[in-house]
Amino acid sequence: MRYIGPRKSWLGGGVLGGLMLAVSSVAYGQDPSGQGAGRKSAEELVAVRTVVDVASIAPGQTFHLAVIFDIEPQWHIYWKNPGEGAPPPTLAIEVPKGFEVGEVRWPRPIVVQSPIGPTYVYENQAALFVPITAPDDLMDGSATIRADIRWAVCKAVCLLGRGRWSVDVRTVSADSQTDPVPVSAADPVLARLKKRLPEPLAKAAGGSADFDGTTLTITGPAMGRSVLTFFPGATPGVSYADPTVTIEADRFRVEVAVQIDRRNTLGKRVVLSGLVALGPEDDDPSYDFEVEHSNDDRPQSRFHRDRGQRKSSGILDSNGA
C-alpha cells in the first residue's frame, strides 16, 4: 500500500486470533478480577517511553526508534512468539514522507513455565528497536516519529495496555551534515538494552541452519558458554519438538524435529525461524535465523536477513512480509 504524506507501518509478532483467544474477556486497562481500585492498570504496570539512538538524522541514514518497557516486578510482557502466553506487543509507526520503516528487532527473551506450557517473555525492562531510514533529500529541520503501541502484561491475570507516543528528531541536510553521534554512546541504559539484540546467525563463525524436511539443525560457536536455550519462531502450520542440544569443543549443535501441516499455513510461505540464546545472562550472545522451506518440499536454507534492511511497502504484516 502506498501512502501520500505520513506513512504508518504496523509491526509486531504473533497471530491476531491468538490475541483475541487469550485475552478476549479482558478490556483495555481494566481489572478482570473485579477487585476494582486495588489493582493497577496495564499502563501503570508497564511504563512505556520512546527514544531514538541518534542525536540527529543525516540524509540516507538508518537509525533506530527504541520502545522501552519498564515492567512492574513479577509481571511480564511477551516475545514475538509468546509460546502459550498472551499476545506480544504491536507497534504502529508513523513517519514523515520519504522515510522507510524496517522490521522490529526483538531482544532475547526468557522462558517462564505456565500450567499449559512454556511462555517466552520479558521481565523488568526490555526494548524493541525499529530501524528507520531517512530519505536522501533530507533538509535541515526536524522529523516527528509517532508510535501507537499495544501490549499485554500478565501475572495471575492479563491486562491490555495501549498508548500513543512521539519523538522529534533534528534533521540535517547534506550541506550542513556533521558526523552523527549515537545517543546510545552516552546513554548506558540504551547501550545495555541494545546488547540484548541477537545477531544474524550468518555473522557467527561457521554458523548454519539447515532443514532436511524432518529435522532442523543449527550449529555455531558456543563462545565459551555451556548453557543454550532454543526459542522457536511462530509460523502457521509449523510445530517444533523439544530440541536436542550438544556443546562440544566450544561449538553448539541444536537438532529439532519439525512437523509442517500445509493445510494450516494460512497461505503463507513456510519459514522455520527462531533464536539461539547462549548463556544465562540477558546480554550473553544470541543468534536468530530463518530457513525457508519451498512449497515443492525441497528445502532452501538461508540465514535471517539483516534486521536493518529497508522496507518499501507502507504496511508490514506481523511476519515482515
Structure in words:
The protein is mainly beta and 321 residues long. The protein folds into two domains: 7-194, Sandwich (Immunoglobulin-like), CATH 2.60.40.1250; 199-302, Immunoglobulin-like, CATH 2.60.40. The protein has helices spanning 16-23, 42-45, 188-194, and strands spanning 7-12, 46-52, 56-57, 62-71, 76-83, 90-95, 100-101, 110-114, 117-123, 125-133, 141-154, 158-171, 199-200, 208-211, 215-221, 228-232, 238-240, 244-248, 251-260, 270-278, 286-293, 299-302. The strands form five sheets. It has a five-stranded mixed beta sheet with strand order 1-6-11-12-3. Strands 13, 16, 20, 21 and 22 form a five-stranded mixed beta sheet that branches. Strands 14, 15, 17, 18 and 19 form a five-stranded antiparallel beta sheet that branches. Strand 18 and strand 19 form a beta hairpin. The protein is globular, with a radius of gyration of 20 Å. The two termini are 13 Å apart. 37% of the residues are buried.
Give a brief description:
This protein folds into two domains: 7-194, Thiol:disulfide interchange protein DsbD, N-terminal domain (Immunoglobulin-like, Sandwich); 199-302, Immunoglobulin-like. 6% of the residues lie in helices and 46% in strands.
Oligomer: single chain
Q: For the report, how would you describe the main beta sheet?
A: 5 strands, mixed
What is the CATH topology descriptor of the largest domain? Answer: Immunoglobulin-like
Number of helices: 3
Report the portion of residues in β strands: over 45%
Provide the low-confidence segments as ranges.
1-9, 14-37, 297-321
Please indicate the count of domains.
2
CATH class of the largest domain: Mainly Beta
Rg, Cα atoms, Å: 20 Å
- How do the helices and strands follow one another from N- to C-terminus? EHHEEEEEEEEEEEHEEEEEEEEEE
**Nearest-integer average pLDDT:** 82
Gap from first CA to last CA: 13 Å
Which structural class do you get from the secondary structure elements?
mainly beta
Helix content bin: under 10%
CATH architecture of the largest domain: Sandwich
Shape: globular
CATH H-level name of the largest domain... which superfamily?
Thiol:disulfide interchange protein DsbD, N-terminal domain
Strand arrangement within the widest β-sheet reads: 1-6-11-12-3
Number of strands: 22
